[in-house]
Amino acid sequence: MAETAAGPQRTQAAAQGPWARTKQWLRRARSDGYERHTLTLIAKSALAAASCWWIAHDLMSAPSPAFAPFSAVLIMQVTVYQSLVQALRYVGAVVVGVGVQGVLGFLAGPYLLTFVLVALAALAIGRWRPLGSQGPQVATAAFFAFSTYVSATGSAERWTQLGQIIVLVLIGCGVGILVNTLVLPPMRYRSAEYGIHTLAHSLCDLVGDMYPALREGKLEAERTQHWRERASQLGSIVQQAQASVHTAWESTFYNPRRLRRRHRHRTSFTDYQAVVDALERVSYQVASMARSLDQWSADHDSEEAARPGDFVRAYGDFLAALAHISELLSQIDEDALPDQSQKLCEAAAEAQKARDRLEQGARESSLPLSDPAQPYGLLMAEATRLMDEFQHTCDVLKHGVDTAPASAASVGEGGG
After folding, report:
1. Is 264's pLDDT higher than 60?
2. Measured between alpha carbons, how far is 315 from 379 in angstroms, rounded to an integer?
3. What pTM was estimated for this model as a whole?
4. Cα Dmax for the chain
5. What phi and psi values does residue 158 have, to the nearest 5 degrees?
């Protein structure tokens, strides 16, 4: 019964070793998750950089063509809107940096004292709040401009090359924005749904690697340490999911996909933030559980630790049920939420039954649940907290579905 409820992804524990893990990463990249987004961003950045190099080096024969591809990659953001914002800030930082170098170089000449003055001025201006994260680029641009200024032979050449730096930066930013806008515009890649998909998919992958190994009793140190390392990486994915909720609206600005009919008059599921918050707490609990399993693995080869195999297998069944919930969360779609929320509630009920069976089996086996020196009580506590957080996540979605009709009706009346 647990098998049916869990909808297991795997029947055997995953292979270990660098090559096996590389293949597993590539397999995960086939799905709509963090790995695919990473590959997409790399490919788009490479395309933008290559285009800029061809323009700057082959067409313009610029003496410093690297400025263009560097600029294109630097402003390749996760949303078109952010690409525009960061491009404006970056161009502003470069213009200021080059301008500071040009003025001080003209007044003081290409000497060490001039470089000191340029550095002090650029680093001070770089702290100007409107430049945001691009503030350090003022000093970077000023230093490169000083190098170009010193290598030039005359005043006219110096001013020409300084102006060319700005032109190359404009080309790089323009090409970067063009590629980001026209090649797979990241509307859905950074939507609120995508943030939940990525985080839930990552949780599903990790828990999906755990439960087959637990069912087979494979708790060797290499495996559990790998789980612990992957669990510690969930923090960065949580941050990306939170950012995707905060910036989901930005993806619709200046994005050609929003003009398509299927993107018009869409309602928004307002409880996505609460879902991401709940999944964030789930990720913390998964990381804590992974630490507990890793600490236990050091003693697992001993006869005393290996004896309660039923507990380990039952724990694997419980994690399989949680993996099924994570899989459902990784597929949520606003248009199908009523049906999906019902399935999530059913999956949560089955997971609760698996947790109850785990606890009942542990008590019937007289395991030392209250002994702090043994891992069973700690693992049971982790299972309880995990179940509570997953149940809360499902409840949040169900609540959002129950209250959505009124919101949708309001939107429909307002849009008529």
Report:
1. no
2. 9
3. 0.61
4. 89
5. -65, -50
